[in-house]
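Now for our target.
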Amino acid sequence: MKSSAPEPVTSMLGLRPLSARSVILSVLLGTHPPQAPVAEIVDLAESFDIHAINARVALTRMVAAGDLERSDAIYRLSPRLLQRQERQDQLLTAATAEPWDHQWHMAVVVGAGAAPDARAALRAQLRDQRLAELREGVWMRPNNVDIRWTPALTPRVEMFTAKPDADPEGLARRLFDLDAWAHAATELTTAMDNAYTPMQRVTVAAATVRHLLSDPLIPNELLDENWPSTALRATYDNYLDEIAAMRATLSSDNSTPDNSTRIRT
């Protein structure tokens, strides 16, 4: 009996193939400067089994939506997405770089009566700072990363430095679902090792970015010895090398000078 083809790793992880728009953005967000000639983008899309017509339609719609700007047949990220790229670069290259002195950031939300949308926005901003909620209105994390407050946060949040009396590892696990994050990171690393088509690889890479952006960046002292974030970052770093090589080849084929580089994570 003839055996069936193995299920794609993307399907096993519940990942759907990326759209033309998502492929183009994934490549440009990982490239510095984030721009490319139209011919290269179309050729690149075809490498991911995206028809040239679909790629051109996606480019037109992305310009109309404010995702891209076009000048002299060069497409580049819009200022809005340049800000997203800068934030993504910062988060992807982030590490527990500061020595941990066993102190914790504690943010306490003060004041009452805010509208639901304002409360939701505040919670999202606190999560963006990699804080987690201990109880309603009290957010914490180890102080091994900088907390960057926006002016909108300041009136409603008071910051403290704290130190738990006992079991900081247990507190970290109460605040952050470390086991779930580690399991997903290991699955993504394995998936990239077993993703063979360009579309499978870019789909796993996009999921990898999303997961790395949610890395709680807990100090090593509070983590298992084989915490998988380093391996996952290396996997994504290697994938960016693949994309840079692919773009260099396409740029050469199109006889268009290209000085693009990728950010190292």
In short: The chain is about 50% helix and 15% strand. The CA atoms of residues 129 and 147 lie 6 Å apart. The mean pLDDT is 87.
